[in-house]
């Protein structure tokens, strides 16, 4: 969740980061092995069907070849600067998610290539009603 007072600044940061893209700094995604694509985008604040506010969210999506633990390690070690800059606009970052990413990276090798991950699946009624 993006802190409400940070949305405008995050939007500016994303706009400034867009021309060079994610391949180079601060993300350096071109150096991630097996990466097919990466998307970083802001979902703006909206209201659900009951009129309750759904805060803005920042989403990082990647599609990568196995093994997952290598990708998680590289996200931390190679792309960490960009991830920290982007998610620094979010409430509670760096919080338990950073430690959890390290934990998943460390434990993923135990599961071979069978481990799948969706970092924080969120389902809210009404979010897709305006798409």
Q: Overview of this structure, please?
A:
- It is a single chain.
- The chain is α+β, with helices and mostly antiparallel strands.
- The chain has one domain (4-120).
- The protein has 4 helices and 4 strands, in the order H-E-E-E-E-H-H-H.
- The chain starts with 6 loop residues before the first helix and ends in a 23-residue tail after the last helix.
- Mean pLDDT is 78; it is low at 109-131.
In percent, how helical is the residue content? 25-40%
Order of helices and strands: HEEEEHHH
Q: Summarize the biggest pleated sheet.
A: 2 strands, antiparallel
Strand content: 15-25%
Number of domains: 1
Uncertain spans: 109-131
Total helical elements = 4
Categorize the overall geometry. Answer: globular
Global mean pLDDT: 78
Summary of the model, kept short:
It is built from 4 helices and 4 strands; from the N terminus they run αββββααα. It is of the alpha+beta class.
Helices and strands, with pairings:
Layout: H1 7-17, E1 35-43, E2 46-47, E3 53-54, E4 57-64, H2 68-77, H3 80-87, H4 96-108
Antiparallel strand pairs: 1-4, 2-3
């Amino acid at each position: 969740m993006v802190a409400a007072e940070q949305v405008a600044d995050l939007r500016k940061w994303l706009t400034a980061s867009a021309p060079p893209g994610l391949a180079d700094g601060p993300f350096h995604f071109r150096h991630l092995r097996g990466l097919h694509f990466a998307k970083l985008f802001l979902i703006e604040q909206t209201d659900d069907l009951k009129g309750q506010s759904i805060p803005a969210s920042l989403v990082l999506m990647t599609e990568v070849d196995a093994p997952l633990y290598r990708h998680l390690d590289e996200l931390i070690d190679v792309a960490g600067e960009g991830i920290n800059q982007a998610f620094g606009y979010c409430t509670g970052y760096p919080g338990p998610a950073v430690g959890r990413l390290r934990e998943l990276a460390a434990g993923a090798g135990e599961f071979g290539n069978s481990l799948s991950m969706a970092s924080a699946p969120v389902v809210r009624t009404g979010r897709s009603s305006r798409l």
